Amino acid sequence: MMTVDPTGPVDPDLVEMIDAVFAGYRDTHSAGAALDNQLWTRLDDLGLVRLTGSEESGGSGAGWYEAAELLAAAVRHAVRIPLAENDLLACWLLQANRMPVDGAVRTMCLLDDRGMAYDVPWAGAAERIVIVWQAGDGYYVADVAAQSLVVTPGANLIGEPRDTVSADPVALAGTPVGAHLVTTLTRKSALVRAIQVCAALDRIVQLSIEHATTRFQFGRPLSKFQAIQHLIADIAAEAALARAATEAALATAVRSDWSAPNLDFLVAVARSCAGQACSVVVRNAHQVHGAIGTTREHRLHEYTRAALAWRSEFGSVHYWDEQVTRAALRAGSAGLWSLITG
């Protein structure tokens, strides 16, 4: 679970309610990658599908700390649903550009110069797609009905829709959007995945500890074996580092309204740490669980495969490693500390 900054406390009752909704859903449903319309309606009734939207536009008026708790709870229970894509990305962009927002399920994408967008999350399940493209020196945005676009199905490692979207920008009625909003959209997209990866890593650590303390070998728990202790210590440390980096980026983003001069660096660090942690956590967790961890019946794969899938979305691990390196080199020895601390 994400740690809550004291300047942005999350109501414990909200956290409990969110967790109970997803836990209740998983009591009667297996982990699936298709959008469950009944669950979406339930979350909509509770004001969760547009948790951070303004109340004037039909949202619940909450903030990113609450959204982080919502995303983490969905991950903990392995519920696949486009809450981030709808609320934090697509609807936020419309609202920020003073465009109307209704109750449709949305996702968003950024077209390349050929009018293509690849690995678009949940495009095939969305009713509308918020499309951003560059024309000349400016950017434009359009809220488009999904059925009017060419959407080619695809999927990530856990089967979530990651589709290809093709559009002709010339035929779209685009609204000019400031470049700063596109930059913020990029930051938010990246941080969303860092939050989700961290939640998956935390759940993997929890499952590994539970397995090691309850599984007996040679008359004693696995947790008594030094090799197992080292494996779990390593994954706990890696998960904690990724979470600390992500929380630091989130706190700076919220405090500065996504405008801090070192925010790009902090987001890159969060993504780099989360991406690198995945390798250690996934490998060690499967070693701790042994053969049972490779079975479909055990829930470990719901989190290990998710972490591996998400760490490469909205920028690969290599890409974020490069961003950290380049920012550090630009800052030099004299400016590195201020880059880290802001």
From TrEMBL:
<dbReference type="GO" id="GO:0003995">
    <property type="term" value="F:acyl-CoA dehydrogenase activity"/>
</dbReference>
<dbReference type="InterPro" id="IPR036250">
    <property type="entry name" value="AcylCo_DH-like_C"/>
</dbReference>
<dbReference type="InterPro" id="IPR037069">
    <property type="entry name" value="AcylCoA_DH/ox_N_sf"/>
</dbReference>
<keyword id="KW-0285">Flavoprotein</keyword>
<feature type="domain" description="Acyl-CoA dehydrogenase/oxidase C-terminal">
    <location>
        <begin position="181"/>
        <end position="316"/>
    </location>
</feature>
<dbReference type="Pfam" id="PF00441">
    <property type="entry name" value="Acyl-CoA_dh_1"/>
</dbReference>
<dbReference type="InterPro" id="IPR009075">
    <property type="entry name" value="AcylCo_DH/oxidase_C"/>
</dbReference>
<dbReference type="InterPro" id="IPR009100">
    <property type="entry name" value="AcylCoA_DH/oxidase_NM_dom_sf"/>
</dbReference>
<protein>
    <submittedName>
        <fullName>Putative acyl-CoA dehydrogenase fadE25</fullName>
        <ecNumber>1.3.99.-</ecNumber>
    </submittedName>
</protein>
<comment type="similarity">
    <text>Belongs to the acyl-CoA dehydrogenase family.</text>
</comment>
<keyword id="KW-0560">Oxidoreductase</keyword>
<dbReference type="GO" id="GO:0050660">
    <property type="term" value="F:flavin adenine dinucleotide binding"/>
</dbReference>
<keyword id="KW-0274">FAD</keyword>
